[in-house]
Structure formats: C-alpha cells, structure tokens
Structure to design on (151 residues):
C-alpha cells in the first residue's frame, strides 16, 4: 500500500500543529521544518481548514492551529480524506475493471482484506499518539522545548 505525498504532508502538518498546541503556526514554519514546498503546504493547510481540522487565521500575524483535539483525530480519517482513490487494484472499481475473473477471484478478496487491515491500524492511531514523543521529535524539526505545547 502506498499513500500520496499529500497525505504525508497533511499528517506532518497536523503533527506540527499538535506539538505547538494553541500557538499559531505559519506555513513557512512547517515548510522549513520538513523541507516541503510552501506551495504544497498552502493547499494542504487550506483543505485541512475546510475539513475542520485546522483553524486558519488570515492576516499579517495569522497562521493556523488545530481546531480539534489531537486525541480525536485519527490517521485513518485523514488518509481517507486525502486519498482520492483507495482502489488498490483495478478490479476494486467496476468502471475500469478489465479482469474477466473478477467475480470469483481470490486475489481481489485477499487485497480487500489487506486494505481493511491496513486502514484498521491507521484508525487505531490518533494524532496525539503520533506526537506523544514530542520532546524527541522537536529537535529534529527545529523546535525547542519552550515551543512545545504543555506536556
């Protein structure tokens, strides 16, 4: 299974915001921390705001912060929102399937079970879980302990 860069960027943006707590974060901060294009992050932050995961504050002193508690945001829900197509193989989508074995194929059901298991693991992990070791993550992305949300 492979997730897109967009999903990766969305999750890392949310992790950064979670580590900063209620403080506003600038897109440039995240871009610098992870070495990700600012343009990609602007789109990501905008969409996460529309979905209700971020509170986006416009203006000169603007930025963004989490709009929901990290403990209620799961990796699985973010992956489902950010991935356009969750079809592992063509036979998952009847509109494009060309395989004549689709109605009796055990490979398809094997892939379906694998995908369900993969998503079940992601559904069990929250944003809070991802940043539980913020004190270890922070120095790797240029944050010091004073910038972290209260632990």
């Amino acid at each position: 299974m492979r997730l897109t860069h967009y999903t990766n960027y969305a999750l890392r943006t949310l992790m950064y915001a979670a580590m900063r707590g209620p403080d506003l974060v600038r897109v440039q901060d995240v871009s610098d921390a992870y070495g990700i294009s600012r343009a990609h992050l602007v789109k990501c932050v905008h969409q996460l705001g529309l979905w209700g995961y971020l509170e986006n504050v416009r203006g000169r002193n603007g930025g963004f912060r989490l709009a929901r508690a990290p403990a209620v945001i799961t990796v699985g829900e973010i992956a489902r929102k950010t991935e356009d197509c969750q079809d592992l193989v063509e036979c998952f989508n009847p509109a494009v399937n060309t395989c004549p074995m689709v109605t009796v194929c055990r490979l398809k059901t094997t892939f379906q079970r694998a995908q369900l298991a993969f998503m079940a693991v992601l559904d069990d992990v929250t944003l809070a879980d991802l940043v539980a070791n913020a004190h270890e993550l922070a120095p790797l992305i240029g944050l010091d302990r004073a910038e972290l949300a209260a632990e």
Notes: The first strand starts at residue 54 and ends at 57. The two ends are 34 Å apart (CA to CA).
